[in-house]
Structure formats: C-alpha cells, structure tokens
Design goal:
Length: 1310
C-alpha cells in the first residue's frame, strides 16, 4: 500500500493482499483508524501497549494495515495522521517498542519497507478541482483529540468536503485518497473558507516535512539491506516526482499554499542525501533519476540543488586526484539547514560525480531563469578545477566535459533578457578556460574557432559585453593561436563603454566596475599596434566608430587634435595598417580621462596614458605635448580628487625624461606647464588650508622644478622665472604671513559630484613628505573645489606648523636649485658622483693627516677652518700652501683657498686664488668657478688712475666733538681707540726717523713679494671681503672648533645621501615552483634576462665605483647594474653576479655562500623584480622570498609572452599581505589596497621590449618610495640633511663676545 504514482512509474507494484480497508466507507475507516491509533498512541500520561501483544507477523501486518490507512485521511483528520506518523517513527528508531514478532522473526527489513511505502500516502495532495461533493460524515466522537494547535472542525463548511478520487493502478486495484474538492467558481468560496483551508493545508505540509525527516533519519541510523535501500529510493523518487512534476504557483486559484512548492527543497535535499547514502551504482536507477529530474527542471530549486550536490562531489573528487591539498576529505551536504558530512567510497564518489554532473537536461531545454542558474553552476565546476595550486586539468579536458553546453549556450538564438544572462555566464566560463595556460597540449582548433565565434557574437550583445570585458583581462596574454585578430573587435566593444556608456538596459554590475574592466582589457592591447605594425585589418572594421566620431559634439576638439597629431606624424606612411588602432586607443584613453568620475579609474587611466606615451613617443613626437596640455588643463579645473592629482603630477614628472621629444615639437610646452603650476600653487596657498593641501603644493613644486631643470630654456625667459620666483617666495615666506581673512573669499564652484561614485582611499599621497604628517585615520580624498569655502578660514594653529614647514622646506630646496640654474651653475661632469670627494677636496682627510703629522701642535694651527653660516650650511675653508698645493708640484705665491660648502642639497667645492697684477701687465680673465672641480681663477685688478678727492669745510666744524670725547673711559670701545692711537704714534715716530736722501726725482719700484707661502691667511681675506667679519654680520657666522666629535659628525653628514638611494633585487625563474636555492643559484640564466639587466642601468665596477652601492662590496661582486640622475641613485642586487669572498676575508663573517651573501645584501630591498618564464604559481614564489626577506613588499614579475619572439612582456605585480609582525602585515595590506599610488606599470599590463627597462626601473623606484611611506620610514634627502645640520648647529653654538670672536679669527699668526 503506497502512493499510486510509484506504481505508475513502474518502480513498485501493488500487493493485492494489502489495502484491506480501502473498500470500506470513509466513516467506518475513520472510526476504525481512530480507535486503533488511539490504542497504539494513547493520550498523555498513559503508557503504550506492551509490544508482546503483537505475537505474530499476521497481527503486526493487520495493525500496520490500519495505521497505514491513517495516511489516507482527509485534511480535517490530520490529528489522527500525526499520531500515525509518531507510531511508525517510534517503531523505527526505538527497537524496544517495536512489535515482538518483528524483532524475533527477523522481519526488520520487510517491516522497514512497509513503513516507507505507507508513509508515501501522506504526500497525496488533498485539494482538487471537481464539482462540489456531498457533505462528509461527522468525525468519530470518541476519538481523543490530539490536535495540537489545530482548528475546530465545526467551523469548516460541510458542503466543501469532497468525495473520494480514485487512481487506476496497474493491477486493477484502487487506492482511495480522500481529497477536499473546491468549486471552480471562486466567488462561491468565502473568506472564512480560504483562511481555514489554508491553515489545514499548512498543517498537512508540516506533517510531510516531519515525515521527510523520518526518511532522512532512517537513512542515517538504520542498517538497511540492499532491497530496503532500493525500496526507500523508489519511494522517495516516486514521491518527489509526483509532486515536483506539477506546475509551480497557485494552481488551485484559492490563495493557499502550493504543496509542491513548499516541499520542493525538502524533497530534493532528502532525496539526494538518501540516494548518496545508498551508494547505489545501478545504471537503471540512475537512468530513472535522470528521466524524472528532467520533469523537475522547470523548478529553480531543482537546478540549485543539483548544483550544490555536483559541486560537493567535484571538490571530493579533487581530493582524490590531488590529495588533501585541494578539495574536501568528506562529502559535505546541506540538508534542512544542517551540514551533513558523508564518508563514501572512492569508486562510488567518482561514479556518482560523473552521473550527477550530467543529470540535468541540455541547458537550452531549460526555462530562461534555470538556464542561467545552470550556466552559473557549470562555471563553479570549472572554477573548482582551475582555482587550484596543483596542476589543473587540461583545457581540452574541461571542454570535452562541458564544451557542448557552453558553446551552445554562448551562441543561443532568440534570447530573452534572462537567457542573455545565461549566455553571458557561459562565455565567461569559456574565457576562464581559454585564458588558462596550457602546458601539455594546445587547444584544439575546433574549440578555438567556436570560442572566437562566440566572442564575436557576444561582443555585440549588450547583455554579454560586460561579462566578457570582466572575464577577458588576460585573454591577450594567453598566447592562443590567432587571438590577436580579435583586437579590432575588442576596440570597438570597449568604445561602447569608454569614454561614455552606450549599453542600453540595466547593467549587471556597477558602471564604475564595468569601465574599470574595459580599462584593464585596454591595458593588454596598448602596445600591440607597434608590435604588429604591418597587421592587415579587415576593411570597414571601424565603420561604426567613424559614425560615432562624426556624431560627437562635446569631445570633437580632442578627436580632431588626435587625428591631426597622427596624420602629421605619419606623412610618409599614411596607409600604416595599425594607425587607426593607435588613434582609437589614444582617443579612448584621453577622452575617458576627461569624462571619468571614479578616482580609482582615473588613476588607472593616468598610468596607462603614461605607458602609452612612452611606448609611442618615438613614432609621434607631438604626443607628449598634447598629453601634457590635457593633464595640465585637467589639474587646473581644481575639480580632481587629491589622490588623482598626485598621480597626475607623477605622470608629468615622468614626462620630463621625454623633453628631447617635447622641444622638437614645441618649446612652449615646458613654459606653459610651469606657468600653469605657478597659478595652481598660488591658488592653493591663497586658500590658507595648508593642512589639507600641502601634499599637492609639495608635489606641484617638485613637478615644476623638474621641468625647469630639464634644460636651460628658462634662463632667457624673464617672465617665466619671475613667476616661478614669486611662487617659490610665497612658499618660503609662508610662516611669516598673517592668516588670510575670509572676507572676499571666492564663491565655491557649483559642483554636485556624486561622492559615492568615487573610490575612497585610506592611503597618504605618493612620496609623502618627510614623516611630519601623522597618518590620517580618514580618507585622503580631498577635492580642490572643497578648498575654496565661503566660511571663515581657520586661524593658524600650532598643529598646522608641520604642514607649513613642509611647504617652506620644499620651496627653499626648489629655490636653491633654481638659483643654480639661473646662475648657470653647471652640473657635475659626472652625475654618478655628485659631491664625490677628490683627494684635494677631502677636508676631513687633510684634518686627520695634519693631526697625525703634528700630534704635539694645537689644532688651531691647522690650515683648515670650519664655520657655521646662519645655521643652514657648514663652510669649510682650506688655505692652500706649498705643503698643500691644489695641483701637484705647483707653488702658491699668492693667497688661495679651497672652500667646501655643505648644506641640505649636497656638498659643493669652490676654489679661490688671488693674484696681484701690475697695471701694465696683461689683464687676466675673470675667475671661473665650477662645482666639484678646482679650476685656476684669477682676481682681475683694475688699472691705476689719478684721483682727486674734493674736500669741504662744514659751517659748524668747531662743534664736531673730538674722538677722545666720544668714548667713555675704560670701556671696550675706549680701549680699542687707545690702541689705535698708540699704533698711530708708533707709525709717526718711525716715519720721522726714516733717513732722507735728497733727490731731484724719485722712482717708485714695485715692492718685492712679502708673502709667507706657509702662512694661513687666505680664509681671513676671503671672509673679510665677503663681509662676514663686519660687526653687524657677527650673528651670521659661528666658528666651529675642530675635535674628534666634530670630525665624526662631518663624516656622518657626508654619508647622508644627497639623492634618493634605492636598491632592488632581481631574479630569474623558470617557474613559480622553484625553491629558494634554485632561484638564487640556477643551473642557467636566460640571455634575454641579462640583456634586460643592462636596460635597467649601466654596469659599474665596484672596485672603482664611488657612488651608491647599497650593501654590495667589491669582495663579493665585481659589477652591478646602476643608474642615476639628478634626483635618484639606483642599483640592482643580482645574485648571479655575486662571488664568494676569499677565505681570509673577515668582512662577511659566516656568510661565505652565495645564498647567505644574497640574503644579506638584499635585506633592505623593498622591491623584487623577477623575470619568470612560466607565470603559473608566481605568487608562491613571492611568498618564499618574503619568508627570508621580511622587508620586501612589492614583487614585480615579468613574463615573456610565448609566440611574441621575446618582444611582448606581461607584467604582474603582487603585494602579499604577510609579514613577521603586525605592523608589517598592516603596511602590506595598506599598500595592497592602494597599489595605484606607484607606477607607471600596473598589474596585468603588456609592454614592448624597447621600453621594458626604463618603465620597470621607474616603477621600482616609485614602489620603493611607496613602501617606505607605508612603513613610516620615508624622508626626503634634503630634509634629512637639513635636520642634521640644525642639530649640529645646536651642539656647536658658542656665545663669543666680539673681541673673543676676532681673537679666534686671528689666533693663528700669519
């Protein structure tokens, strides 16, 4: 006795010996069932009958026949049915309450099967659409009501109860199920009927759920035979199929719950759990399940449950294939909110996984919503195999499994909006498969053709395009055969997203994310036009873009400017095949920058523009000027977020290296930019909100001075350098200015930018100033237009002084550089060694040499003197004597000095020589002065002339007091005057005593030399003529006593870098699976990698190299790549250039292996550049390096793309959020979230060979500075030197009186 649908499915056959009570009238059956149920399930407080009353199997079956009929009762008798459910549940799980005959007769399995089958009768719905039946008989009066929370049956209208409905069975028997019949005319039903009927149906559903829990518990706890498992599976399959094959929704039109819908999830969960626990591998059973499942596929819950089960099986299979590293060691299911763990045999897992993933019908046969769910599910299966640290399956294998589903779904025709989502997901899954590197076997050509066809169709679909762009960021780095022929189609598709959205309908993702996805795809095709410069494009491929270009009004100026730019740059080859690609790429980048509102996307675009200009400028000279002008105008709008403005300044400073191209196109680019920056800084300084704007001001100053110093163009431009001087002077005098008044403040621009559309950043600006700005807890995301407020400007507070000091110090540094530029102060001949101490200019070495040569003499007789000038610079003056000639073998008949100036900007050397020349001698040239060199210079003397000095007599000359009357006796001034009078009297006495020889004429001959070449006198002459010895200038100069502490301080000052000094590490790796030993000491290194090292910097030999060398030493390395310019020194630590030190070397201690030496010299490197042939598992390699070098934070991987003839490189940037302490982890996490603060290279970009070296170097320098910013260790070199000099001035302050000062100056006798 069971649900008749099970028999119709030919799963089970009815037994003619059962259903004994089925032919009885309903009231008789109800009375009999109620009495027997009440006997077996007495009311509360009464014990159940003793199991011994069931003495024989016949007795047991008779009782079960009666109880089983309780599952046929109508809705109003569900209280009886509930007790019948409890009786069977107790008999199943409490063995001591079962009938004795079952336990003693070995009838457990048959007993279980009968219970399972009879339970199925409960799942027959009790509502049907038929004509109104006669009223039913009343319920038995003597049955104890156990209607827990039930409803009084007296409220149920008697005319609504239905007549029995019969279902024909295969053996001509009938199972009678009493249903409630509802009239077709809904107007005849009352509100009370609907409410009461709804409550009864709800209770019926709850009893069905309770029964399903019994099924699940039986499968978990009972020991079932194979036949019982099969019976249970067939019962569950029949119940599920009977209910789920029906339509969804309110099929009865009564507004009551649909039993099938309410039980769908529970049925599927219990069915699949029981099915898997049975471990059945019968092909027939699985085939029946597949057939039945196709009838449920109109229900989303069925597809979702299939997805969950299949994914769980997939992860379990992964564990069997890869071990415990991947997947799950048990099968995890979710049933009724509970996590169920199944430990199943491996052979069954594999079989069930194979059958389960193909359980659904072809996705095209599914309803649109379920079609999308199925495509998402298949995508999850593919992700499970691809997102693994082990070797993932071959792409062809995945396509063999899911290719037919995916390709058919991708090119599905007659799509509705919901189906288009499924097609988009199928294309996304295909992109994941095809973007995965293939090691062993390339993709089959048939699969590639289908994939390209699907992409071509999908790129034209508004629904598929966003998904394709989000999934194809690595498509053009996959080295697929023929993939680059899709570049024109992708350019056309990207133009539908950038610069303006042209997709109709609701987007499946935020517009900012979609534009970012388009920008990332664009970053992989930037360099392709130059790589495939002879690429033949299909005629008319850009027809749609040309129509759009002619219809644009707002950005017509940019469009025409770019068109003219490329037309003039390619006059000799107007039919260049890739010229149109370049045009559209540049147009997209520049116009997107003008229209973008997301700060994150704008920073991304600026980096791409930077890379594109560097790539393209050799072929289009005017490109730099055009881009500089565009960025300049964008900054001057004062509408950019602060983080975007800082990146824009970085890009402009990167373009300084392209000045040779700039001046060939237009010499006014630099001038206009500098003037624009002056206006920009003046505007920010006038707002008075320095605490918010100081990073922008400092960055603008840096950008301005770099463009000024790039050449001598400003020297003859009076208007420009006057504007620059005025702007710098505003910054220098910032601390002296009064707080600005708010009166007359300009009105803020009326801008209503949606802040939600801008990505926030918690990162301080790039190249943060010195450590004087405390890390802000909020966002550094200030808009320029927020700086001009009509409210009262804040008065200067003490906590603002740090920001103002930052601006002042930067302005002073820029002014110092500008003065040198305007004064034609030539740069060092060798930029590698600015401030390099030659043997002659080594003042500290001379002091030490003097102390060693004359240990018994006072240091005051040393010909080297030190002075502190205005507490800002240290002046060292060396008197040149015969003992210390400027040039070897040269004598010094006249005073000569060597002056060494140390200040915040560096160390400079001047040489001075004075020569007395007769007026008839040839006139010498003016002295020439050079930095870091010691040229011979001569002070020119003018010719003598007769001079007549007119004299006058004052009217009141007698009233003028005598000098003896002016000074007060016994004062310091009076004593000095007395000394002067004494000297005058001695001179007069000597003059009067001279012998007088009469002569008619006197011939004056030149006096002979009266110079002691061993005397120290030049420094007094120089400082006196410079005015430092005047009493009124006494406060400007302080003599410094030479001692061991001072010598040590000067040596420390000389070791402070004058420029940013950066070291990075460079490695070569075949793949990411190498060990550290294999990485540092490989068997062979690629020749292309060694060529790449030469593009990072020129090789220098450490034996003679006197610039920055990091921790390298000539004992462990002969040469290393090195680069320097006016602002930075850069060296690369390469383990393959190291050598083991000699055995007698004590400098390296126990670090006598290459591994240990490399670990030691790279311990301060924040950036690692890794040339990697196989990009797979590159992150694991970075983590291995991080383990031995905790300071390394940024890992820049360079992957040569296959089939590109080593001309295209894929850049991956990885910042692991790991470290040996909490601060390192926090710094790495902070940098990872704000990776766009350094550039120009960004993660995922593709670049060409001819620019890879310079861009990697620039990115490494920028990343190094960013790492020091997030770790709070960055300080600009001139700030460090300035602070150190100020500390020295405090330590060496001396309070000398005027007389003591002059005594100290003249303490060494001439």
């Amino acid at each position: 006795m069971f649900l008749d649908w099970i028999a119709q499915l030919r799963l089970l056959q009815h037994d003619t010996q059962t259903n004994i009570l089925g032919s009885l009238p309903l009231q008789i059956r109800r009375t009999l069932i109620a009495e027997i149920t009440g006997y077996l399930q007495p009311s509360a407080g009464k014990p159940p009958p003793d199991p011994i009353v069931f003495v024989s199997p016949a007795h047991v079956k008779w009782f079960m026949e009666v109880v089983g009929q309780g599952f046929n009762l109508p809705l109003e008798d569900m209280n009886i049915t509930e007790d019948d459910i409890d009786i069977y549940a107790r008999w199943l799980f409490e063995q001591n309450t079962r009938p004795v005959a079952v336990n003693t007769g070995g009838l457990e399995q048959e007993f279980y099967q009968i219970i399972f089958q009879q339970y199925s009768l409960l799942f027959q719905p009790r509502i049907s659409r038929t004509s109104p039946p006669p009223p039913p008989p009343p319920p038995p009066p003597n049955y104890p009501s156990s209607n827990k929370g039930g409803f009084p049956l007296s409220v149920l209208p008697v005319h609504t109860l239905g007549t029995p409905i019969t279902f024909a069975t295969s053996n001509s028997t009938q199972t009678t199920i009493h249903t409630t019949t509802i009239p077709s005319n809904s107007n005849s039903t009352t509100h009370l009927l609907k409410e009461t009927l709804g409550q009864l149906v709800k209770r019926h559903i709850e009893l069905c759920k309770k029964t399903l829990k019994v099924f699940a518990m039986a499968a978990r706890t009972l020991k079932l035979s194979t036949e019982t498992w099969t019976a249970l599976l067939k019962v569950m399959l029949g119940i599920t199929d009977y209910l789920l094959k029906e339509s969804t929704g309110d099929v009865n039109g009564l507004g009551v719950l649909n039993m099938s819908d309410e039980l769908c999830d529970h049925l599927l969960q219990v069915l699949f759990e029981v099915w898997l626990r049975s471990r059945t591998m019968e092909v027939e059973m699985w085939n029946i399940l597949k057939t039945c499942f196709s009838r449920w596929s109109h229900r989303p819950q069925a597809i979702q449950q299939w997805s969950l089960i299949s994914l769980a099986l997939t992860k379990r299979v992964q564990t069997q294939v890869y071990g415990n590293i991947e997947g799950n060691d048990t099968l995890n299911l979710c049933v009724n909110g509970l996590n169920i763990r199944l430990d199943l045999p491996s052979d069954f897992i594999q079989y069930a996984w194979h059958r389960m993933i193909y359980l659904i019908p072809h996705p095209l046969q599914l309803p649109p919503h379920n079609f999308t769910i199925a495509m998402l599910s298949i995508g999850q299966f593919v992700d499970a195999f691809l997102d693994t640290e082990m070797e993932c399956p071959n792409g062809n294998t995945l396509l063999h499994m899911f290719g037919s589903y995916l390709f058919d779904a991708a090119i599905r025709e007659n799509k509705d909006p919901e189906s288009e989502k499924g097609s988009a997901e199928s294309i996304a899954t295909l992109c994941k498969i095809f973007c995965q590197p293939q090691k062993n076997q390339p993709f089959l050509r048939s699969y590639l053709e289908k994939f390209y066809a699907a992409l071509t169709i999908g790129l034209k679909s508004d629904a598929c395009l966003p998904t394709i762009l989000c999934s194809c960021s690595q498509l053009f780095t996959s080295s697929l055969d023929g993939v680059f022929m899709l570049v024109p189609q992708f350019i056309v598709a990207i133009k539908r997203v950038l610069p303006k959205m042209k997709i109709e309908g609701k987007l499946s993702m935020p517009s900012d994310n979609l534009r970012l996805a388009a920008i990332k795809v664009l970053s992989t095709v930037l360099c392709l036009p130059n790589h495939f410069n002879q690429l033949e494009l299909q005629p008319g491929w850009d027809h749609e873009l040309q129509l759009e270009s002619t219809s644009m009004d707002q950005d017509q100026l940019v469009h025409q400017l770019i068109r003219v730019l490329y037309t003039s740059a390619n006059k000799n080859n107007p039919a260049h095949p890739a010229l149109s690609l370049k045009f559209y790429i540049l147009e997209t980048l520049l116009m997107s920058l003008c229209t973008e509102i997301s700060s994150y996307n704008m920073r991304y675009l600026l980096h791409l523009i930077n890379v594109y200009v560097i790539e393209e400028v050799p072929f289009c000279v005017g490109l730099v000027g055009t881009v500089v002008k565009l960025i300049q105008d964008k900054i001057l709008t004062m509408q950019l977020p602060a983080d975007v403005t800082l990146v824009a300044f970085d890009v402009l400073m990167e373009f300084v290296d392209l000045y040779e191209y700039v001046k060939r196109d237009s010499k006014n680019v630099a001038r206009e930019l500098v003037l624009a920056l002056c206006r920009y800084v003046d505007t920010l300084l006038s707002t008075g909100r320095i605490e918010q704007t100081y990073p922008l001001i400092v960055q603008a100053y840096d950008c301005m001075i770099k463009w000024i110093l790039v050449s001598q163009w400003i020297v003859d431009d009076n208007d420009c350098y006057k504007a620059v001087i005025a702007t710098l002077s505003m910054g220098i005098s910032l601390l002296d200015r009064e707080p600005a008044s708010s009166t007359g403040a300009p009105e803020p621009p009326n801008t209503n930018t949606d802040k939600k559309k801008r990505r926030d950043t918690t990162f301080q600006p790039t190249k943060q100033l010195f450590q004087i700005q405390p890390r802000s807890k909020g966002s550094f995301h200030v808009h320029h237009h927020e700086l001009n407020q009509t409210s009262q400007l804040p008065t200067r507070q003490p906590n603002h002084r740090k920001e103002e000091l930052a601006v002042k110090m930067t302005a002073e540094n820029c002014m110092s550089q500008l003065v040198n530029q305007l004064g034609r102060f030539s740069a060092p001949e060798n930029l590698v060694l600015p401030g390099h101490r030659s043997k002659v200019a080594d003042d500290i070495g001379r002091v030490k040499q003097y102390k060693e040569s004359y240990p018994d003499e006072s240091i005051t007789r040393c010909p080297i003197r030190y002075f502190l000038i205005e507490k800002q610079l240290i002046l060292s003056i060396i008197d040149i004597t015969d003992d210390m000639p400027i040039k070897e073998g040269e004598t010094n008949p006249s005073p000569a000095v060597l002056m060494i100036i140390r200040d915040s900007t560096g160390r400079y050397v001047w040489s001075f020589r004075t020569q007395y020349v007769d007026h008839i001698s040839p006139v010498h040239e003016l002295p020439s002065l050079r930095i870091d060199t010691i040229p011979e210079s001569v002070l020119e003397t003018s010719d003598t002339h007769d001079v007549t000095i007119p004299t006058t007599v004052a009217v009141n000359e007698d009233e003028i007091p005598h000098l003896d009357q002016i000074f007060i006796p016994n004062t310091e001034e009076w004593k000095q005057w007395e000394m002067v009078k004494s000297l005058m009297r001695k001179e007069e006495t000597a003059y009067n005593k001279r012998p007088i020889e009469p002569s008619q004429s006197t011939e004056i001959l030149p006096a002979g030399p009266n110079i002691n070449p061993h005397s120290v006198r030049g420094f007094r002459l120089l400082l006196s003529q410079l005015g430092f010895f005047l009493p009124q200038n006494r406060s400007l100069i302080t003599p410094i006593q030479i001692n061991d502490a001072f010598i040590s301080e000067i040596e420390t000052l000389d070791m402070l870098n004058e420029r940013d000094s950066i070291s990075i590490s460079a490695y070569y790796a075949q793949s990411g699976n190498l060990s550290l030993t294999e990485l540092v000491e490989p068997a062979a290194v690629s020749e292309h990698f060694m060529q790449f090292l030469t593009s990072l910097g020129w090789p220098v030999y450490l034996e003679s190299h006197e610039g920055f060398r990091g921790k390298l030493d000539k004992s462990v390395c002969d040469k290393a790549p090195y680069y320097s310019d006016r602002y930075v020194e850069f060296i690369v630590n390469v383990p393959y250039l190291l050598k083991e030190p000699s055995t007698d070397s004590m400098e390296w201690g126990n670090g006598n292996t290459i591994m240990k030496i490399n670990q030691q010299i790279s311990s301060d490197d924040h950036v690692c550049v890794i040339w990697i042939e196989d990009i797979e598992n590159y992150k694991s390699l970075a983590k291995k390096i991080k383990h031995v070098n905790s300071k390394s934070m940024v890992y820049l991987f360079i992957n040569p793309l296959k089939k590109s003839k080593n001309s295209l490189y894929w850049i991956r940037i990885f910042i692991p959020s790991i470290g040996n302490n909490a601060s390192n982890v926090a710094a790495s996490h902070r940098l990872n979230e704000n990776a766009l603060i350094f550039g120009p290279l960004i993660d995922g970009i593709v670049v060409n060979r001819h620019t890879i070296g310079s861009m990697v170097r620039s990115t490494a320098i920028s990343a190094h500075q960013a790492c020091r910013v997030v770790t709070d260790t960055y300080s600009r070199p001139y700030v460090t030197r300035k602070e150190y000099i100020e500390e020295m001035s405090h330590r060496h302050q001396s309070k000398m009186s005027l007389s003591e000062f002059y005594n100290d100056i003249f303490s060494v006798k001439a």
